[in-house]
């Protein structure tokens, strides 16, 4: 029997928690009566990888993509910057990337779209402990996917593998390690400067690359030549590096090496 969790996101509070190995029934395709209905008037939180992949598919600089297709909700208890996909300003409030035949960016659809009908939460951070994610299943009335005759039984692992979520985890886990860092234990919050730092490095990757190569960044940090060449053109390598650098910049972890004398020159 699953124990109740405290501090869950509100959208998961009344959802069914899945035990290890427990399965759920689901399918989604154009013949399902509700096809495309869930792609409107919905809050879709974007991960850094979501923003990067969608920006690349649309051919936009990450700053332009963020300005055009996202919004940043602000709440009094927000500990971290949040990026959400902006629905169209029409009567149906449709996703800007949905068409008559379905998702027009399907290969690069966001993490949340891949996960549905699953939800995932991480238990509160504890020093020295890496919590395992806990999975939930949405049984929304508007979704007819579990009622179809061709609906399939899935375990969480099978579903995540089918939706290419396991492949993305190598990147996504770097972000989860940041937002679930033990530094936040006790409700600590980043100041505005560090919030902006995290937002830029995680979501506005093109601007972060400009910061790395057009500022004194490489004079201050001792980065291997091979890695420098890699992050010039490899977006995923740069994103992984951004996560490592943020652990140094935000939490003072020794994930990057400061050049000898750089601190003294900075003070001067």
Structural features, described:
The chain is α+β, with helices and mostly antiparallel strands. It folds into 2 domains: 10-182, no CATH class; 190-267, no CATH class. It is built from 11 helices and 9 strands. It has a 3-stranded antiparallel sheet, with no helix packed on it. Strand 5 (98-99) and strand 6 form a beta hairpin. Helix 5 runs parallel beside helix 10 (235-251), helix 6 runs antiparallel to helix 10 and helix 9 (225-233) packs across helix 10 (235-251). It is globular. The N and C termini lie far apart (60 Å). The model is unreliable at 1-7 and 264-268 (pLDDT under 50).
List keywords for this structure.
two-stranded antiparallel ribbon, three-stranded antiparallel beta sheet, disordered C terminus, 2 domains, disordered N terminus, 268 residues, globular, alpha+beta
Oligomer: single chain
Q: Give the overall silhouette.
A: globular
Residues in helices, as a percent range: 25-40%
Order of helices and strands: EEHHEEEEHEEEHHHHHHHH
How many structural units, i.e. domains? 2
Q: How many extended strands?
A: 9
Q: If strands are numbered along the chain, what order do they take across the biggest sheet?
A: 1-8-7
Largest sheet: 3 strands, antiparallel
Proportion of residues in β-strands: 5-15%
Low-confidence stretches: 1-7, 264-268
Mean pLDDT: 88
Terminal residue distance? 60 Å
Radius of gyration: 20 Å
Count of helical regions: 11
- Structural class category: alpha+beta
